[in-house]
Write a structure and sequence with these properties.
Blueprint lengths: L1 H19 L7 H11 L7 H23 L5 E6 L4 E6 L5 H12 L7 E6 L5 E3 L17 E7 L6 H4 L3 H16 L7 H16 L20 H6 L4 H12 L7 H12 L8 E6 L5 E7 L2 E6 L8 E4 L3 E7 L2 E6 L7 E4 L3 H21 L5 H99 L5 H79 L4 E5 L18 H4 L1 H15 L9 H11 L4 H8 L4 H9 L3
Parallel strand pairs: 1-5
Antiparallel strand pairs: 1-2, 3-4, 3-5, 6-7, 7-8, 8-9, 10-11, 10-13, 11-12
Helix pairs in contact: 1-2, 1-3, 2-3, 6-10, 7-9, 7-10, 7-15, 12-13
Keywords: Cell membrane, Coiled coil, Membrane
InterPro entries: Band_41_domain, ERM, ERM_C_dom, ERM_FERM_C, ERM_helical, Ez/rad/moesin-like, FERM/acyl-CoA-bd_prot_sf, FERM_2
Subcellular location: Cell junction, Adherens junction; Cell membrane; Cell projection, Microvillus; Cell projection, Rhabdomere
Length: 646
């Protein structure tokens, strides 16, 4: 029995050693130690010892092989908002090493907003701890290991804080996805405005000849909630979006993303992490952690906070198991205490509080040298982009002007060709007229000759009449009748000659006019052809220039947050106005759009958040007015209010 005890003690010591090597053998050492510990007060049978020995041998062999043999690289896949990155890591690679590799790959310098997210073995979304080895964290054992690169903290004011375009794009894509998936509630009329900025950010300027009707049919631009709530077809939604999009002409894609975020950051649920909590009464509530502080929400309303604590009012935070304690700066105020369902939630709350508080205070201090350099570099790059864009705009404008002039010349040439055809037809008609004129002249000449002959005959008859005055009366009457008949014929011939003469003069005038028009059309066509050839040469030179340019765990945790010297930092957020409120034109148009949409709304599909939003709007509340209201009064009053919530 003594030998068995000695053997047991040896095994126990060895197992304790193995526990120290859990990085390589996480299961064996702890399980073996626990098994032996349970047997310490019991009689150890020979069969039990043999079983322990077999387990020990197998485990030790596995441990030996793991330590002595080099580990194989582990495949890791990191998904950003617009790319997938593949890496190979070692068993001792830390979270920070992987994070640094990711930000280096995508060229990100504003790293303080971001983190690596994964789904742990229990199915919870968790942030990778940067100071621990990756394989020691509760990862699902899959190949490759899956991570998401996401924003963990949000800026207060996008336009003032975000420096790099890559940072702007990552925030834009993440916030847009949150709005489209309804993680962030957005009013219907605002989704239309945001969709127009999304189109500008993706496609640039709207061109009716390129963006034909129906091209937005397959684009995901609005939450399904909005589409289902209104009796509008895809074409009708597209028409409303395009009417806004067409007004963003010449806006850079980065500017469109910035405008999108300026409006999105004014939404009540933007950047808020929600956690289920209870007060001392056991009332179920929501805790919201964001860039501005801690807010308390009723269980049925995550849109409108009821109590707020800015980061500057919080001295330190701590938790013990499921109890979370917030100690205010105000020494007269009691501690702010709440309870969470699981320990891991307190850990997440603590981490978010630390990060958001740090950024809140940093924003209220002068920029570090590194940030100043980043801003200067970003400003220079921005100026270069603006100058480049202005140059491109000038070239595009010049090209459009040249193309317009080319089209004008082509239209003019078509007109002139039509004039030429018309002139040719006129010439043909003139030639026909000339032929008719010649024929008419010939007929006129014949008529004149006939007239002269008849006049001669009448004259002859007159002479004869004078000579034969002595003739009989009957012959005289006959001769006079003949003379009258001949005179009537002569008068008719004279009228015919006069008419043909007038017709001939008219035909001559028509011929002269036709010849003049033909001459003018020929000269104009010659001028237009010469100018068009000159313009085409200049246009080809411009295209060539543009082508060349284009090539160019449990236990107590406590963290100190705000010291007394920073207790009175400014709370800029309470004096802010929403981006829409600052732009009266957009506000008016959105109100009109809302009134128009209201007529098409299906009342049966209105959600609880729609009702809450409409109530807030009727009461004249927005994100910042609510913030002012819920921070009113001293800290103790708000803590009392929290503890009395039901």
């Amino acid at each position: 029995m003594l030998k068995l005890e000695l053997f047991y003690q040896a095994v126990l010591k060895t197992s304790k050693i193995l526990v120290r090597f859990q990085d390589h053998l996480p299961a064996f050492g702890e399980q073996f130690y626990t098994s032996c510990d349970r047997l310490s007060d019991q009689q150890i049978a020979r069969s039990t010892v043999l079983k322990i020995w077999e387990v020990f041998k197998a485990g030790f062999l596995r441990f030996y092989l793991l330590v002595k043999m080099p580990s194989k690289p582990v495949s890791v896949r990191v998904t950003t908002m617009d790319a997938e990155l593949e890496f190979a890591i070692q068993s001792n690679t830390t979270g920070k090493q992987l994070f640094d590799q990711v930000v280096k790959t995508i060229g990100l310098r504003e790293i303080w907003y971001f983190g690596l997210q994964y789904t742990d073995t229990k199915g919870y979304i968790t942030w990778l701890k940067l100071n621990k080895k990756i394989l020691n964290q509760e990862l699902k054992r899959e190949s490759p290991l899956q991570f998401k690169f996401r924003a963990k903290f949000y800026p207060e004011d996008v336009s003032e804080e975000i420096i790099q375009d890559v940072t702007l794009r990552l925030f834009y894509l993440q916030v847009k996805e949150a709005i489209l998936s309804d993680e962030i509630y957005c009013p219907p009329e605002t989704t239309v405005l945001l969709a127009s900025y999304a189109m500008q950010a993706r496609f640039g300027d709207y061109h009716p000849d390129v963006h034909k009707k129906g091209f937005l049919a397959n684009e995901r631009l609005m939450p399904e909630r909005v589409r289902e709530q209104y009796k509008l077809s895809s074409d009708q939604w597209e028409e409303k979006i395009v009417s806004w999009w067409s007004e963003h002409k010449c806006m850079m894609k980065e500017d469109a993303m910035g405008e999108y975020l300026k409006i999105a950051q004014d939404l009540e649920m933007y950047g808020v992490n929600y956690f289920e909590i209870r007060n001392k009464k056991g009332s179920e509530l929501w805790l919201g952690v964001d860039a501005l502080g801690l807010n308390i929400y009723e269980k049925a309303d995550r849109l409108t906070p009821k109590i707020g604590f800015p980061w500057s009012e919080i001295r330190n935070i701590s938790f013990n198991d499921k109890k979370f304690v917030i100690k205010p700066i105000d020494k007269k105020a009691r501690d702010f205490i709440f309870y969470v369902p699981r320990l891991r939630i307190n850990k997440r709350i603590l981490a978010l509080c630390m990060g958001n508080h740090e950024l809140y205070m940093r924003r209220r201090k002068p920029d570090t040298i590194e940030v100043q350099q980043m801003r200067a570099q970003a400003r220079e790059e921005r100026q270069q982009k603006v100058a480049e864009r202005e140059r491109l705009q000038r070239e595009i404008a010049a090209r459009e002007a040249a193309e317009k002039k080319q089209r004008e010349y082509e239209d003019r040439m078509l007109e002139m060709q039509e004039d030429m055809e018309r002139a040719k037809r006129d010439l043909t008609n003139a030639q026909d007229t000339i032929r008719r004129l010649e024929l008419s002249l010939k007929e006129l000449q014949q008529a004149q000759e006939n007239l002269a002959r008849r006049e001669e005959e009448v004259k002859h008859l007159g002479t004869r009449l004078a000579e034969e005055r002595e003739m009989e009366a009957s012959e005289k009457d006959k001769l006079e009748a003949e003379i009258r008949r001949r005179e009537a014929e002569i008068a008719a011939v004279r009228r015919e000659v006069s008419e043909k003469d007038a017709q001939t003069r008219r035909l001559q005038e028509e011929v002269e006019e036709a010849r003049r028009r033909q001459q003018e059309a020929s000269e104009a066509l010659l001028r237009a052809t010469t100018q068009a050839l000159h313009h085409n040469k200049a246009h080809n030179v411009f295209e060539h220039m543009e082508d060349n340019y284009a090539l160019s765990n449990g236990g107590d945790y406590k963290v100190e947050l705000t010291s007394d010297e920073y207790a009175n930092v400014p709370q800029w957020e309470v004096d802010r106005q929403t981006a829409i409120e600052r732009n009266q034109n957009i506000q008016t148009r959105l109100d009109a759009l809302n009134a128009d949409l209201e007529k098409m709304r299906d009342r049966d599909k209105v959600t609880e958040y729609d009702v809450l939003h409409m109530e807030n709007k009727r009461a004249g509340r927005d994100k910042y007015k609510t913030l002012r209201q819920i921070r009113a009064g001293n800290t103790q009053r708000r803590i009392d209010q929290f503890e009395n919530m039901v």
